[in-house]
Amino acid sequence: RHIVILEDCCDSGVTLDWLADYLRTKSCASVSLCVLFDKQAHRLKQAKVDYVGFQCPDEFIVGYGLDYSESYRCLPFLAVLKPSVYQK
Length: 88
Hints:
By secondary structure, the chain is an alpha/beta fold.
């Protein structure tokens, strides 16, 4: 089987790297990673992302299902959260 992992955002890369490595041990024909936002500023693991929607700067993105502390998830658009909101 061919596996495609879809993720909203790749930040540290730790989870996607672990999951892709784990699935590769299960005799998959292939494992591909697809992310909407690729944020490389805090990358700890260099997960090989095969498909990228957008390179994302080191900013906190909310809306369309992306949230901060259970807020802003239902915004019908994407937005950058002001640092004053999350740097308390």
